[in-house]
Design goal:
Blueprint: H1 3-11, H2 24-30, E1 40-42, H3 49-56, E2 62-66, H4 69-78, E3 84-88, E4 98-104, H5 115-125, E5 126-137, H6 152-159, E6 163-170, E7 182-189, H7 192-195
Parallel strand pairs: 1-2, 1-4, 2-3, 4-5
Antiparallel strand pairs: 5-7, 6-7
Length: about 200
């Protein structure tokens, strides 16, 4: 599942996860963020409906990451006259600090063997007092992923060493195609000194 794999899926239109619009739970969360100057990261941004919505709401500092070259080129054209930055970059190599990272179909696209790395790297990218917010699947899949599923219990065990669990509950406003299959998350990074033994 390298950049070529994802690039081929976008080039061939093999994007069954694409809802064609901003995720309703993320839209509702974004509508509650009143500071338009917060630094926001969207890893594995895909077609970036959330970034489009953020730009339309006058958020001034939005960065989208993706590893598919054809997609990134398209998005850079789409957002050329906005303040959205689109980078062709691997999340695990990305550096920076953010107030908010939005999770939407990225976690489920990476191999489960990398989930601990995801959590640690997320923790390193989010400022104290910042948030990791979005949706995670609350189901398993019969076919080998991606997407890869999971459960609330798994997520609590995985994230708790590095994050305070502010919100982790079933979505009541999922897209119809995902009704009953999503958990909304809002996690805040624990102070790094409290996590030092885990590094």
């Amino acid at each position: 599942m390298d950049s070529q794999y994802w690039n081929n899926r976008y080039v061939n239109g093999d994007t069954g996860w694409d809802m064609g619009a901003v995720s309703p739970p993320l839209k509702e969360y974004i509508d509650q963020v009143h500071n338009r100057d917060v630094r926001i990261l969207i890893p594995g941004g895909g077609n970036s409906y959330e970034a489009t919505y953020l730009a339309g709401q006058a958020f001034s500092d939005v960065t989208v990451l993706d590893v598919a070259p054809a997609l990134v080129e398209q998005l850079q054209k789409t957002f050329a006259r906005t303040r959205v930055k689109v980078l062709e970059e691997d999340f695990f190599s990305h550096t920076g600090t953010y107030d908010l990272i939005l999770e939407q179909t990225f976690f489920c696209a990476i191999a489960p063997s990398r989930r601990a790395d995801y959590v640690k790297h997320m923790h390193s990218l989010i400022k104290p007092g910042g948030h990791l917010a979005g949706v995670l699947f609350n189901r398993s899949f019969e076919k080998e992923g991606p997407p890869f599923g999971g459960s609330e219990a798994e997520y609590r065990e995985l994230f708790t060493p590095y994050f305070d669990i502010k919100t982790l509950y079933p979505c009541y406003n999922s897209h119809p195609a995902r009704q009953g299959c999503e958990l909304f998350i809002n996690f805040m990074p624990k102070l790094k000194r409290l996590c030092a033994d885990s590094y």
